[in-house]
Amino acid sequence: MAEARANDSTYFARVRSKGAAVITVAALGAFLAAVLLGGGYPGPYQAGDPTLLMRDVSPSSVGDTAAMGYAAPPFYVAGRPEGFAHGGAAPAGLRRVSQRYIESAPDDTGAVNAVSAVLLDYRAFDTLGEIAVMFAAVTGIVALLSRGRLPSSGVGLSPVVKRGALYVPAFMFLSGAYIALHGHISPGGGFQAGVIFAAISVVLCVVYGTAFEWRLLNPVTKTALESGGAIAFMLLGFIGPLKGLPYLTNLAAGLPKGHPGSLASGGYIPLLNAAIAVEVGAGLALAFYSMIKRLDYPEGGDWR
Amino acid sequence: MTVVTAAYLAAAAVFCVGLYGIMTKRNLIRITMSVSFIESAALLALVASGYEAFGGRPGAGTEMACADPVPHALALTGIVIGVSTTALALSLIIKLYKNYHTLDVADIKDARRRWLNEEPEGRVGAG
Q1: What is the DSSP string of A192-247?
Q2: From the list A101, A104, A134, which residue is nearest B80 (CB)?
Q3: Which A residues in the span 73-92 are in contact with B, Cβ-Cβ below 8 Å?
Q4: Cβ atoms of residues B103 and B93 within 8 Å
Q5: What is the pLDDT averaged over residues A218-231?
Q6: Predicted ipTM of the assembly
């Protein structure tokens, strides 16, 4: 039996022993390293090659495509000009979309942090899908673990720790708010701030017990915050359609640009960052709470 | 060896560690950790692909060279998706543990066969 189970120990691939696993893994790893070091792109550049990682999309500032001297949408290969073939030169006339992002993000979006500009202006629709994935995952977790007993799973740590940790959540909130609202100026943004906000809930659960946390921020409140953040993101996107422009249009829809580099700049990017921070923070806190609450079932109850 | 080469080799190594874990471990939580390793390898390769020598962080409007912002934004997306899937997998593992009182994949399979009132079939490739 033990021998049979040892042979059944593999889950995704039926290899006989650890030796076979090691050989397989080593072969795959060598292949992966070769692919990565070869630029991730096996042949010379051809227009429309499906192995290209992504294609440029037209910038969100509608109508300035021609004005920027930006004719046919170029292709982009893993961010490296040397990523074209094995030492082959990039085709003439090709301009890297990243270069344009770096050079003209302050003019296009008002955000100095180019990552935020890409994430929340040029490709804001992707971010909408991203928070939809987060929302769906949290919904699934809560639905899976929904039958536990709610309020009293832990009583917290000792009074010394409770007293000592009294001021920690306030500073965590301050740090999270700073990171969220400065996302368009410095590294950071809504997702990172949301994780810090969720950590506040974790600290409260661990130090003061889940009963306290349940009274302070009960799951209904968290659900409302999570849904509210996602809905705020979607409603902010409707500024564009109201002006007859595409969904999630930023500066072209008349939002104030501000002075790039200052706190009040970037159109709706700080607002989107705040909405994402609330959504992610509440969602992750909800997921954490659903996981640590005691899954007691009433006597004689079924296990499903 | 440039920094990018070293990062790619490290990504391949981390990928191998994760793949080895998936292929050999039987504990569900270790399998989930291995999947996270593979995800980390992909993110490392992605971020390294945007590296510029002597470049700063991807800010805009400066004269100095700076890293490519697009792989960074993609990595951010990947991190969020990875957190979501890992959290969902862990909650499924909690439910499995409540049902089967074990985290061992083979034990769960055996219990499931018994539950289905089937004779344990001869294992393919056992020997």
Answers
A1: HHHHHHHHHHHHHHHHH-HHHHHHHS-HHHHHHHHHHHHHHHHHHHTHHHHTTS-T
A2: A134
A3: 76, 78-80, 83
A4: yes
A5: 92
A6: 0.83
